[in-house]
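Look over this record before class:
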Amino acid sequence: MTSGGSPLLSVRTEARQLVAPDYAVVDGLIEQTAESKAEAVRSVAGRLDRLTADLAALGAVSFDAGAGRRPLTWSAHSWTTREELYHDKETMRMERTGQVTATVALQVTVRDLAALDGLGSVLAAHPGLNVQGVTWDVDWDNPAWPQVRAAAIGAAIGKARDYAAAFGATVQHVEHIADAGLLGGDTAPFHTAHGMAFRAAGGVDQPGTPALTPVPQELIATIEARFRTTDVSLPSA
């Protein structure tokens, strides 16, 4: 309440909209075990070279600062080595096998969703690659974002009018509109719901090859708003 005495309404609303994803991110690991660390590293590097050559045939480029939103990019962003161990049932201890496993973490980002089937075939053709997951996402500047945010504001205005009408007032003007949490309370930022999915492609040449199916993304805009209403005269008790 201000000195003028007119009520101040605070509301929180959200709007949701399903849209097609803008891109997919495939995370995987290439592993190779050998008699020595050097041999394991050489072997896994060879597998990586063969895979990235096949990706290059699809138009993929190595991800760097200048790659931007290229249709298909890849990044081998980390590698590790470890000694192979086994559980000895007699000693009940973990013992070394004498072999070493080298691992390279690979990430492939695809924006040309028409290339998903070809990408799935390439990934399936490399037995040393273990796909850990596929994540779908929407760009921050997707054209649907202004629509869902405007819908959230419209919902806030409607909600405020409902509240005002309940005690015989009308909404006069907007005091504040902000992202959730900026007017106080917990935070609930804009976000998308991610998902992952595979499907079986029924091609004749490669029956049963795993292929990637785009998962619709739900854009959610959550806002808080404050509205000033006309004066209210409450009945006496």
